[in-house]
Amino acid sequence: MAQAEKKGGLLRKSSASKKPLKEKVVLMYDEIFTTEDPSKCNPRFWEELFLMKVNLEYLEGKLEALDGEELMKIKDNINCLFQHCIQALGEEHPIRVVNALQTLCALIRGVHQKNKSTSGFDIINMLVGFDKAELCMKNLMESLDSLLCAEGSESLKSLCLKLLLCLVTVTDNISQNTILEYVMINSIFEAILQILSSPLSRREHGYDAVVLLALLVNYRKYESVNPYIVKLSIVDDEATLNGMGLVIAQALSEYNRQYKDKEEEHQTGFFSALTNMVGSMFIADADEKISVQTNEAILLALYEAVHLNRNFITVLAQSHPEMGLMTSPTSPVPTTPVTPLGTTPPSSDVISSAELPLDADVQTSNLLITFLKYSSIVMQDTKDEHRLHSGKLCLIILTCIAEDQYANAFLHDDNMNFRVNLHRMPMRHRKKAADKNLPCRPLVCAVLDLMVEFIVTHMMKEFPMDLYVRCIQIVHKLLCYQKKCRVRLHYTWRELWSALINLLKFLMSNETVLLAKHNIFTLALMVVNLFNMFITYGDTFLPTPSSYDELYYEIIRMHQNFDNLYSMVLRLSTNAGQWKEPASKVTHALVNIRAIINHFNPKIESYAAVNHISQLSEDQVLEVVRSNYDTLTLKLQDGLDQYERYSEQHKEAAFFKELVRSISINVRKNLAFNTLSQELLLKEFSTIS
Is the pLDDT of residue 162 over 70? Predict the structure, then answer.
């Protein structure tokens, strides 16, 4: 009976009389958490420790359970463990290296939990000790660099990257993470580039490498010289830049694919049946259910590449035949558990398939098309904070592209025509466009379509003023290039003009509500100046003379909106209120639009009276316009084709600081060190002597 009780005690987790049975590694951890040196009684203690399977949960939990004072008492043992981990990274036995890497992850995360201002101890001192910090961190970074660059195990490389991501993201604000000073001094930039330039390494580790680089670039970027910024800005190796582009394209494309799958599921499911039954009144609510978590980390990587490296611009337009040729690796590949997109890379089977183009034709896709499709999805719903941030970052990236001379050259290239299927928000008053009827056009047309789509679909109570301003700025920058290079783009300009006039109408209709939160005159001025740009320089970039006539037709047809806008700004500019100055700027900007309306309207009325026509057709109005240009007098307006270039540090620093904090939290939350099961590792390292 006593024997049976004993056996039962071993099986039960705990009982009143007996302690639970502990695995050997846990007992060894307990020895480290005493004030005694664990190797005193057992000289082979450290050697044995790294042969044991790591218990991450127990080690982290044990560290978190101690207060700052208790942790300081065992500081020598923590320092010793950290140093022995670094030594073990140089071992020949891969199992020791794996266990050392996982132990380091647990140590860094566990000790960082205590790094609160109340604890009063320094994280570096706690982990390695001030006296040995420089040498220890140098050895750690050199070991990680060697492992990443070696031709050895892919599993080890994966763990190295996860350790580095752990190191970078232990604090919400990465710029407060003092350990990163050592990552700056002992750069792993070349190791990251090597991963991106090699097809095999890129397929296995490209995602983690790109996210790691994006985060490192943002360490104290405004306060000191960050070597990762300097080095990224001068990379000119084609294979490396293309590799980075491929990783970003794959992640964005995976998001697009997931969204498309959900959309199709949605259309054939319950909501579709419900919509058919009760009409389209629930269409907007139904579509809000289609949500795939946005990927700010990969978007940040794209931004840094576009913003910092002029050479990367060429990658945007390159098609990726490699995507269709990739095959799954033959060696065993550790799979990543299913976590929200934006935190882990697409699995290798996804990457190896030709998933980049959602179009039927594999050859007609590139990173820019994939990015535009991604943008068209995330910019649909800006009510969610993550999507708002994603939408803003998409527009910032497009701003950088719209300012770049080379980017504009391929955007407007008549020999580079693409069919870009952007996602359009379901709206009651318009039918869904048939994807197959899309024409092949220069890529700038897709950018303009995206801007028009945003303008039309976001006139709502929670007005995203900042996004609208960016949107209009992008259109303006593209027009400036067209005017400068005399590019006559065959585009449906009427859609843009109509969207802009409706935007002005919305601003006027909601004047009181919007003025309580925003200076709507800044946006109104930008819209009016877009029209001024068309009026003043349209003959140099509009595709045909009849396009210029159509511009005048639209202004005359919608004259009531411009008249109402003038009345509103005149009223506010003559009052001594806070809006006097911004409103008066709009008043002055309207001078040519009002001249056109006041010149042609009497001519049109006279034509109708003489010909006894109550309502003129479009062709008749255009005839009046064409025959009365000669007597129209317009004022020359300065600075219409000039703009302030994008500057991150002065205007966007707060946004990026918050964005990087959000990404850091997300990456840390979804970082899985035990994705490599011990069984898989043992199988991979079965040749250990």
Answer: yes
What are the phi and psi torsion angles at 423 (to 5°)?
A: -85, 135
Question: Is the model more confident about 12 or about 305?
Answer: 305
Single-letter residue type at 26: V
Q: Which two tokens stand for residue 530?
A: 């877009």
* Rounded-to-integer distance, Cα 399 and Cα 293, Å: 24
Q: How far apart are CA 333 and CA 203, in angstroms?
A: 11
Q: How far apart are CA 659 and CA 136, in angstroms?
A: 32
Closest Cα partner for 327 from 354, 367, 346, 364?
354
CB 213 within 8 A of CB 192: yes
Strand segments (E) across 257-337: none
Tally Cβ neighbours within 10 Å of residue 654: 8
CA distance 402 to 644: 12
What does the H/E/C string look like for 95-160? HHHHHHHHHHHHHHHHHHCCCCCCCCCCHHHHHCCHHHHHHHHHHHHHHHHHHHHCCCCHHHHHHH
What pLDDT is recorded for position 331?
36
Alpha-carbon span 139 to 130, nearest angstrom: 15
Q: How far apart are CA 631 and CA 419, in angstroms?
A: 43
Cα separation of 494 and 618, whole Å? 14
pLDDT digits (tens, 9 = 90+) for 66-119: 877 888 888 899 999 999 999 999 888 888 999 999 999 989 888 887 665 444
For the chain, the structural domain boundaries read 24-185+658-688, 258-265+293-321+363-426+438-487, 492-648
Sorting pLDDT into bands at 50, 70 and 90, what band is 235?
very high
The b-or-e profile of 377-398 (16+ CB within 10 A means b, else e) is bbbbbbeeebbbbbbbbbbbbb
Contact (Cβ atoms closer than 8 angstroms) between residue 684 and residue 98 = no
What are the counts of helices (DSSP H) followed by strands (DSSP E) for the chain?
A: 37, 2
d(CA 195, CA 204): 9
Q: In terms of Cα–Cα distance, which of 302, 306, 317, 309 is closest to 378?
A: 302
At 442 the three-state DSSP class reads strand
Q: Output the six-digit token pair for 446.
A: 């897709």
Q: Write a three-state SS string for 573-617.
A: HCCCCCCHHHHHHHHHHCHHHHHHHHHHHHHHHHHHHHCCCCCCC
For residues 211 and 295, what is the distance between their CA atoms, to the nearest angstrom?
Answer: 11
Amino acid at site 246? L
Task: Tell the residue number behind the tokens 């582009």, with chain if given.
Answer: 245
Average pLDDT (439-465) is 94
CA distance 413 to 474: 18
3-state secondary structure 551-582: HHHHHHHCHHHHHHHHHHHHHHHCCCCCCHHH
**Bridge partners, 96 (sequence order):** none
**pLDDT > 80? residue 346:** no
